[in-house]
Amino acid sequence: MASSPCSSVNFDSGLEIKTRSVEQTLIPLVSQITTLINHKDKPKKSERTQQAIQRVGQAVSVAVGRFVAVGEAIAVENEELKEEMGMACFEARRAGDAIAQLTDVGTAVTPPVDGRTTVFSDRTGMVKAARMLLSSVTKVLVLADRIVIKQIITSRNKVLVTLEQLERVSTFQEFVQIFSQFGNQMVEFAHLTGDRQNDLKDENKKARMAAARAVLEKCTMMLLTASKTCLRHPDCESARINKDAVFHRMRFALEQVMEIVTDARPCGETKVLPLSIYTGIKDFKSNVEGLREGLYLLPHQALSGQLEAVVERTEDFTDSAYTSHEHREGILQLCQLARQDTDQLITDWMEAQSLNAKEATEEMELSILKTCQSVYELRRELHKVAVGRAADLLKLHAEHLPLRALKASGGEGNLEAVAEYARTLGEQKEQLVETCRLLCHVSGTEPLEITCIHAEETFHVIGPQIISAAQTLALHPSSKIAKENLDVFCEAWESQLCDMAVLLREINDVFEGRRGDKRAYVSLPRPGKHSANLKTVKAVKLDAEEQSTIAKLGLELRLLTSDMDTEVEKWEDQEHDIVRQGQSLSSMAYSMYLFTRGEGLLKTTTDLFHQAEVLSEEGLQLCSSLHTFSTQLMDEQKVVVLSEMEKLMGLCQQLQMGVRTPVQGKTATFQKVDSSIQNTRAIITVVIYLLPVCNKIVRKHKSERSSLGSPQSWRDRQSSTAVKDDVLNGKNSNGFGVKSLEQHMANLTFLESK
């Protein structure tokens, strides 16, 4: 970072600072040392000034002492770093002591001229000590960072070993045992890599890490269902193909994470993004405008060559079967206009050189402006085409008709229909893959380019996996596991479409200048009544210390949502109002848990408060359903349900009032976050108690009804409250679409029965 405070003092540590945590640790130290070094060396200083400088020097020395103590403890625990860490700590302590001595008024050197004491008689010694201190402290931090990298590598190695074991299992019992271990390892790996992703300074690496972690998250659930399907139907070729593809993709994603963490590429390769039209135009425009500063820095053919490279890439648009004739003609005309303006610029440029001009002539200045304008018009047209096509595709496929048709025809065992709808999905996949490629050309930033490439790869891979899963279901239409497997892959596809919609908004923001990097867009239900009381609240992100404080609360919330999902899945009637509202509450609570980890779609405190308010309203809807449910019960049962319902209602109202109360200041905002999560945890706890109670009552009534031969169903006796099937309040509210690995862990014991 050119503007980083760490660059204000010149020192050569020979080490590159790659993480924010290391940089942020150095900033206060750099600031204090800079104060000492840059202090004006006046002939005479007051006693107050001398004491102030002495305090700074002592503070540096004390801080270094504490810092070194931690470094030495790390060295003891990590034998392979003991020697390097010990030397760096020794140098840091020595430099800290030197600074304390040089700023000590009592030992200051007295100049022989007039006997007046100056604090910095030995300025050269101070600069030398400062450089040694910064260099050694940086080395300690970077060595400590190696420990973090080592933890990630160790975690990855554990995952790989267990992955190999999972691939070779032949019985359900063995699979359940190993997958339980694998699940815990993946949770640990997710935490470590998530922390690393947030700590990286390089935005491109952060985007690549986010893409790889997204693959691992989705593939973990795919691996679970694909492996179960393969075990249940060992002779099914399509099930084997489905499973092998998941294992291959998981290994590839694990290697991607390692490349980012260790900065290593196989065979010394360098990760280079495919050159986009946006990047080509940016470089071309930079060279054109650079002619104002130097007429003789570039050969003439360099500009025309750059433009032709950009024009060649526009063929991705003009050669596409999905580009309209009108758009194709518009792009070709703008390319021709850019060529003409560039040719005129080169002519004026050569004329200026022939006159030995030292700066751009008026004619040349006009040509520079026209050329820049023409390439901007070309970029704007390409942006309009790419974004327009993406928006149209998202609208067209919002109903997920091919997925529904594949599920239905697979469940009916109709292989011919599966083949027909597979072709339809294949066409949709090709359209989406091509559209992602076009979006990459106009994305506007490299992190967004990386996200576009990830989206393209995801559609390209998941499409065939859905088809193989549908073929398996068609061959075994009565298989619950095969159906579950197809559902998981379809959910991953739907989730990627949602991610694409978010990506589209981010690209638009960059183009329109609202934001220069990826913004924390959150797709949450935000009708007027939800935001009315939050308009004046400033959205903030929690810092590392606050994030750490709420992490424990979040973990408890995650465990509760896992318990809640387990209780929900025990219900036979999954369409029961109580079940659906319970699932919605669990999903929203899980989104709030992801917030405590700095992950998911809730990025700011305002996002969290919006989600909490929606959760409280869903809880009140559940209270309404429970009240209706209680009218069918006997006195004793009714008392229990109504008692818990009143408790739930009070908690929901308390949460609602809390999130609607505006607060000012960082401390008050953090307290509001803490209170919101505490109240949510209390709500989920009550619902977890109610679910098995209500389920037991429903089962009992169903049993009694069966013995009496009554044709009336229990659900028909209820006056159900109408609830809209809003996807934002369903299992997709956490932005992933597929149940998390942690939520599935509790269900492994039921594999055999399925």
UniProtKB/TrEMBL annotation:
<dbReference type="InterPro" id="IPR030045">
    <property type="entry name" value="CTNNAL1"/>
</dbReference>
<feature type="compositionally biased region" description="Basic and acidic residues">
    <location>
        <begin position="714"/>
        <end position="728"/>
    </location>
</feature>
<dbReference type="InterPro" id="IPR036723">
    <property type="entry name" value="Alpha-catenin/vinculin-like_sf"/>
</dbReference>
<dbReference type="Pfam" id="PF01044">
    <property type="entry name" value="Vinculin"/>
</dbReference>
<protein>
    <recommendedName>
        <fullName>Alpha-catulin</fullName>
    </recommendedName>
</protein>
<dbReference type="GO" id="GO:0005737">
    <property type="term" value="C:cytoplasm"/>
</dbReference>
<feature type="region of interest" description="Disordered">
    <location>
        <begin position="702"/>
        <end position="728"/>
    </location>
</feature>
<dbReference type="InterPro" id="IPR001033">
    <property type="entry name" value="Alpha_catenin"/>
</dbReference>
<dbReference type="InterPro" id="IPR006077">
    <property type="entry name" value="Vinculin/catenin"/>
</dbReference>
<dbReference type="GO" id="GO:0045296">
    <property type="term" value="F:cadherin binding"/>
</dbReference>
<dbReference type="GO" id="GO:0007266">
    <property type="term" value="P:Rho protein signal transduction"/>
</dbReference>
<dbReference type="GO" id="GO:0007155">
    <property type="term" value="P:cell adhesion"/>
</dbReference>
<comment type="similarity">
    <text>Belongs to the vinculin/alpha-catenin family.</text>
</comment>
<keyword id="KW-0963">Cytoplasm</keyword>
<dbReference type="GO" id="GO:0051015">
    <property type="term" value="F:actin filament binding"/>
</dbReference>
